[in-house]
Amino acid sequence: MLKSLLARIGRFLSVTDENPELLKAQFEVFSSQVPLMYSIVLISAWALAFTFIASAPPLLSIYVPIFFTVVCCVRIIGWLRSRHVVPTAETARKALARTNLFALLIGVAITGWSLSLYPYGDPYMRGNIAFFMAITGVGVIICLLQLRSAAIMVAIIINIPFVLYFSFSGIPSFIGMAINTFLVAGALLMVVTVQFRHFAAAVDARTLLETVNEENFRLANLDSLTGLTNRRQFFTNLTETFCDAKTKGQRLAVGIIDLDGFKPVNDLYGHVVGDSLLVEVGQRLVTLADQNTHVSRLGGDEFALIFCDCGSDEELLAKGERICDALRTPFVLADATVQISGSIGLSTFPQLAENVHELYERADYALYHGKRTNRGHAFLFSIDHVVEIEQSTRLEQALRNADLQQELTVVFQPIVDIQTRRTMAFEALARWNNPALGNVPPALFIPVAERAGLVGGITRIILEKALATTSNWPENVGLSFNLSTQDICSPDGVVRIVGMILSSGIDPQRLDLEITETAMMYDFERAKTAIETLKALGCGIALDDFGTGYSSLSQLHALPLTKIKIDRTFVSNIDKNPASYKIVKSLLTLSRDMGLGCVVEGVETREEMDTLIKLGGQLAQGYFYSRAISESQINDFLPKTLEDQQVV
Asked: What angle do the packed helices 383-401 and 442-452 form, to 10 degrees?
């Protein structure tokens, strides 16, 4: 029991490492208070020494105070230097332990030195000793208020000998002073205990608050689903790494990844599977990243990478392709095994970006360009893209300022029944003739209009003009019209299209509305609703560029389609390319099995036509029959036979 009691007293009077934050807080306080404590000791010691300098030996009246001065000055300088230091818990513990030890030593030294002067003084000088010991003890205890162990040791070492020594002096005033000092010391120790408890509680509360704030900050900068840094932290990291790269003269690259085919997975299997897929994508990207690569999720199915001190353009593109290859590997999830791909746009500093904004925007442009041209691969922003951006900016400004009602016209390309040689329909195609820019190809201005949110207005103008032209055709000739992503994913856009069709007086059954797989996959449910509305009106629904997107057969089956259009990339040189031959043959068979019409696009040569006839194709369009013609040429075109229609 005695051993246990001594152990408890030892812990009470020592500095422990049980609370690291408390140690650091004590160090912070003492870095300003301890120099004050040593200053009090020095001033009081020299004041007492001067009192005895004429009566006490030089050892006691001069050399001992000088020794005190040297020791105290060294300690003062040491603590003043540490005022701006942010210590670790271990460093703070060692510094406080040294303070504990010095408190013990200085208490012993003050007590021994003071009492050793007692025989050399008269009653008044001895009163100065009592005053010195009492005041110095109180001052040291107050300065050590936040280090309970040191304060208690000083109180015990100075006050117990003082009280005992002066209580037996036989001098009433000294006895009264001893009793008073004893009571004051006791009260001070109670204050020390209470204040230390409050100090420790305040430190614990501050630590808890800091922990909560740090956690809130962490959560505010993390994506809750994948655990990656979020969009906010990505831009913070990008700004920091950009400044660092600029200072060190290093290359920096940004990569933006967009998943191809994620929305179909989300729509087909549900959001739970979609979320699981995003988590797996994040983990796969982290696995591929090295110590110089930071991975973030920007939102949705978009991720971003920061490549610090990246290598050459070739090395960067190789990294991008490895990422794309990894994303093509099937993801085995709890509820399904799914396969997607990912496109990545890359930009570099300082070659093609001067600031953080340009670095990000140009990576985004490279991604957009890649998704338009060859999905599932890495694309690096180049000087050619700068020219494209400038051109797009000019086109966008021209579109915004143009009188599109006057400048937009419609031309029509025939869709022919290759078995009966009869023109079945015309596909309406937009043309833009701007006074400043001249004739601008649709391949240039349509993507710009889509990105700028202007394509809906173009659709309405072209559809209105196409319907007006169709009203002059024979009843058995139909119209095929392209709808954009914005047209079918906007409820207001669909309502306007329905209104235009009904007010035109054209039988909706003469109208085929074409959508692309990309538009359908942008928001499958909303696109499906729009398609069902248009199908209920009586319009045919054709899936354009079939085979180039990421839709699944189950989704195609879920849509009320009436036709598919085989993209011209599969038709070119079909008579010479066995792979193209097999693909077109399979697609024609698929359309027949699903009860869908099938239009083959891009037929340009007699050999391609003969091959399609051999495969049993029914509908086709392309330069073999005619280029797009104006409204005034249609009446002359319709009576012609197949041979007359051929344009090589």
From this structure: 80
pLDDT tens-digit series, residues 196-233: 777 777 777 777 777 766 666 666 678 888 889 898 88
106 and 68 in a common domain? yes
Q: Domain range for residue 318?
A: 231-381
Cβ atoms 301, 259 nearer than 8 A = yes
Structure tokens at 305: 């990478």
Residues 369/385, Cβ–Cβ less than 8 Å: yes
- Token duo for residue 369: 């360009």
Q: Which residues, at least 6 apart from 6, have a Cβ–Cβ distance to it below 8 Å?
A: none
**Inside any domain, residue 156:** yes
Inside any domain, residue 388: no
Report yes or no on 327 lying in a domain.
yes
Q: SS3 for 368?
A: helix
Of the candidates 39, 42, 69, 64, which has an alpha carbon nearest to the alpha carbon of residue 52? 64
Name the domain count of the chain.
Answer: 3
* Judgement on whether residues 152 and 241 belong to the same structural domain of the protein: no
pLDDT at 285: 93
476 with 599, same domain? yes
My answer on whether 18 and 81 are in the same domain is yes
Of the candidate ranges 257-261, 402-406, 487-491, the one whose mean pLDDT is the lowest: 487-491
Q: Do 517 and 460 lie in a common domain?
A: yes
404 versus 4: which is more confidently predicted?
Answer: 404
pTM beyond cutoff 0.85: no
DSSP state letter for 330: P
pLDDT at 131: 75
Tell me the DSSP string of 92-122: HHHHHHHHHHHHHHHHHHHHHHHHHHGGGS-
